[in-house]
Amino acid sequence: MKVLTALAVAAAVPISFAQGAAAQTSPAPAGTGQDGIVVKGKKPAKDKRVCKRSTPTGSVIPVTVCRTAGDWDAETEKGLVLREQLAKDRRARQFTAESQGNRP
Questions:
Q1: Domain for residue 31, yes or no?
Q2: Which of 19, 71, 76, 84 is deepest in the core (most CB within 10 A)?
Q3: pLDDT digits 0-9 by tens, 48-58
Q4: Is 12 a domain residue?
């Protein structure tokens, strides 16, 4: 019986110390991170998440794709560069085809 009482006391002591230590630390204000850091202001427009729905070629089921505004802008710029390159290649190919007829 004395052994059981000693085990109960030994188990209760660490719990009481842990509760006392927790009571001594002050909790962080609401809405803060773990370190008490408060972030104020807005996210930059490029970091804002934008979702768009589109239907892929060969499918009837629309798909929602979410990316940052910066990613959408980069993809649009990439498409414009590709379009200009294709137009340039088309003009070069047309010029070459026309000049082939002028050869003897």
A1: no
A2: 71
A3: 899 999 999 99
A4: no
What does the block give as tokens for 67?
A: 């990316």
**Cα distance between the two ends of the chain:** 117
Domain total in the chain: 1
User: Cβ neighbours of residue 7 under 8 Å, at least 6 residues apart?
Assistant: none
User: Which has the closest alpha carbon to 36: 28, 47, 48, 26?
Assistant: 28
pLDDT digits (tens, 9 = 90+) for 16-33: 544 554 455 555 555 555
Q: Name the DSSP letter for residue 2.
A: H
Domain-embedded: residue 17: no
Instruction: Report residue 77 as tokens.
Output: 């710029």
Query: Mind listing the pLDDT tens digit for each residue in 62-93?
Result: 999 999 999 999 999 999 999 999 999 998 88
Write phi, then psi, for 49 (nearest 5 degrees). -85, 130
